[in-house]
Amino acid sequence: MKQHVTIVCMAxxxxxxxxxxxxxxxxxxxxxxxxxxxxxxxxxxxxxxILSGCVKVEYLLYNMxxxxxxxxxxxxMRFYSYILxxxxxxxxxxxxxxxxxxxxxxxxxxxxxxxxFNILNGCARVSIPLNGKKYEQQMNxxxxxxxxxxxxxxxxxxxxxx
Length: 162
Fold this sequence. Notes:
The protein is of the alpha+beta class. Helices cover 42% and strands 27% of the residues. It has helices spanning 2-30, 44-52, 73-81, 141-161; strands spanning 56-61, 66-71, 83-87, 100-105, 111-118, 125-130, 133-139.
């Protein structure tokens, strides 16, 4: 019985490792991060242009049961202000793994841009798919503070319910 469990565990680990490696390879080829000596290409002007026409932002924090939305261009542009115009420091980030997503919509309710982000475990980045590339930008302290406040509110609400 012990051998059977060990074999099953090894098979699962092999599948996970294979999936992680293929995801890592896929992400490396799609991510627009500057290689050694390459010039940094900023997505921020195009992101600003797109978000300027949006009036709704919807948030989803994966594995935390948190979703919320705000309606106003000011709220849309507040999220934009959390994104630094520099590549993310992905040292503490797991390739292809994100803590949540954000979607921006225009007045007709059409999705104009979606992004994923990390806010936990020392990884503070925003992943922006744009023009067939994926830009990994650094999230600033204000963005981290915003999400930490959301997490504290959820924890407080859960404590009050029990």
